[in-house]
Model the fold of this input.
Amino acid sequence: MITAGVDLSSQALHTACCVIEWADHRATLTELSLGVVDSTITNLIGQVDKLGIDVPLGWPIAFAEAVMEHSLTGGGPVDYSHADTSALRLRRTDLWLWRSLGSSPPLSVSTDRIALPAMRAASLLASLPERVALDGSGIVVEAYPAAALRRWGHQSRGYKGASNAEARHSLVTGFLAATERWLQVTGEQVDRCLSSDDAFDALVAALVARAAALSLVEPVPDEDRPAARREGWIVVPVAGSLEALAEP
Done:
């Protein structure tokens, strides 16, 4: 099996890609690159068994419908001064994750800067010959490294950027120590993870893809399935699944 992970930014410069080959109770990191362009990602989707991409794959239904209504009629979505705007800001998967992990919700794809990478992802997936399932049931799954790291018992915040290099070093070295029995990485790849949180997040996304391929992830609640097909769904590994990823 081959899985891949992509940490998608709005620009190629800060986009990272990781490819892992799985065989004989071992996982070999065969590629870890930065500056990844769209064509590289679309080619990967056709070559791997599962690809985890760290970006929202859709927008809240209420937000999408409100924008459409406004563009057609000029009407506003709600009486904004008195409304609960959470349905416009957060997807069902964001709310589910918030309740399940007890942490702060992911960034809002409709009101935060994460919208720009989401637009790139939508354009990228639309260029593929077949429609991509947004709910994680197909080759592409929506990964959220912070949630996966939290589920696997590792630090999930405060490791990004040059100012957090010390915290990132602690996280990366601890994570690789926990997976060294089965995950093969080169010294150059380790250095890349230490110097770039984008590279490390791509590695985590590739591991999330493996968890999804083995069905070691939380199922979409029945009541959220219709929304997941339109808004996307964050794939979250089950607790204790990290060690099981190398099993056949």
